[in-house]
Write a structure and sequence with these properties.
alpha/beta, 7-stranded parallel sheet, Rossmann fold, 15 helices
């Protein structure tokens, strides 16, 4: 007799087989359209964001005659005029993925997706380095359905984007991918390196913040539990004392501070705002802004728990502090972290008192030195030209 997990996998396998049949039928009806590139992010929950966004912008810049299609669950989101936006549903996915010459995605394609001869798939993933155990690093906590979906998507990819020796080393076990990588860097980090001054002014104008006011971004990751069945995204109210944190930062820097609050994209697609126990005039919820990289570029400090945005900030010399009051519970649900204690250049707090103490003892020069040492050790390459390198690979394929 099947248990609930086995029944769920059997149901998903049937759905995958049906989806594969639809792709095969589409191939008989529709040819591949040269120059057509289909993008999506976060299983359709993302708008114009993350690595795919910056690749799309660079592709249009270098090859404006390309047909750029974006699949999203919320078609009311804002996109540039040169992008054709369609709802992320099975009918549209089957048609557009079947007729595209190139696919770009930062998340897994649905199980049952098929790629035909003459198509090219670059998987950017949605994090380069990260805290959380992923894939086989989760051990027994890695759900069987996640393994099946991961293996299926990885088998479709022609390349995964990489920014380091570290990524190349962990991808086989982390992402169940044993194919070639392209050492491009992270496209979503490009703006953090190249456009911080411009974006700092733009974001401050958008949210009516003065230029001499500093900004802290609090960006926690989502909690998904063991995910033995259908994936769940859990919202939890942060218990940071933001008023106390702002006062500590003001005392240290002599400047006023505002706090941006940012939900994970897959959670912001389900919630209008971050759940809070207490509100403050200094708190601004930016969860509905599509792209976190633009927001980060304007910030003077990042506080997160286990979000990979900490590493993006690290690559761009933006200070990072960690705050996580559920470490033991998180490890129990997700598996051990990817890094040993002391390997990372981040100060970590599990209580408000520890967080305030870390603010007081934070030294930017020490942080930058530790960051450089860490990146050198891991063979990390981030120079602000990642999008250009990915587009170069796309155009090489289109014109071969």
């Amino acid at each position: 007799m099947l248990n609930s997990e086995q029944e769920y996998i059997a149901q998903r396998r049937l759905q995958a087989n049906n989806l594969s049949d639809k792709y095969k039928k589409a191939w008989e009806k529709y040819p591949i359209q040269k120059g057509k590139v289909v993008f999506s992010a976060f299983e359709g929950d993302g708008g114009f964001c993350c690595n795919p966004r910056y690749i799309a912008e660079e592709l249009h810049k270098q090859y404006p005659e390309s047909e750029i299609v974006w699949l999203t669950k919320n078609t009311s989101k804002s996109f540039p005029d040169y992008i054709k936006v369609y709802e992320y549903n099975e009918e549209n996915m089957v048609y557009h993925l079947s007729t595209a010459q190139v696919w770009i995605d930062n998340y897994r394609k649905p199980w049952g997706t098929l790629k035909r001869e003459g198509q090219f798939y670059i998987q950017t993933w949605h994090a380069s380095l990260g805290f959380k155990a992923v894939g086989l690093y989760r051990g027994k906590l890695f759900p069987e359905i996640a393994r099946l979906v991961s293996e299926s998507d990885s088998a479709l990819a022609d390349y995964f984007v990489s920014n380091s020796d570290y990524c190349d080393r962990v991808y086989p076990k982390k992402l169940l991918y044993n194919g070639p990588t392209i050492r491009t860097g992270s496209p979503r980090v490009d703006c953090l390196i190249n456009e911080r001054d411009v974006l700092s002014k733009t974001i401050r104008e958008k949210y009516n913040i003065t230029l001499d006011t500093k900004i802290l971004l609090f960006a926690p990751t989502f909690r998904g539990g063991n995910q033995k069945g259908a994936k769940k995204v859990i919202a939890e109210a942060p218990n940071i004392d933001f008023d106390r944190l702002s006062e500590a930062l003001k005392s240290k820097t002599g400047s006023d501070w505002k706090v941006f609050l940012r939900l994970h994209p897959q959670l912001s697609a389900k919630l209008d705002e971050m759940p809070l126990n207490e509100t403050s005039a200094d708190l601004i919820d930016v969860s509905q802004a599509d792209d976190i990289s633009e927001i980060m570029a304007a910030c003077d400090l990042i506080v997160t728990d286990y979000s990979s945005c900490a590493f993006d900030a690290l690559f761009a010399d933006i200070p990072v502090l960690l705050y996580a009051d559920d470490v033991e519970e998180y490890i129990q649900n997700r598996g051990t972290f990817m890094w040993e204690k002391g390997e990372l250049p981040f100060l970590m707090a599990q209580t408000n008192d520890e967080l305030i103490e870390n603010v007081k003892r934070f030294d930017i020069d020490d942080y930058k030195k530790s960051a450089k040492d860490f990146m050198d050790k891991q063979g990390i390459s981030e120079d602000g030209h990642a999008s250009e390198r990915v587009v170069e690979k796309i155009l090489q394929y289109m014109n071969k």
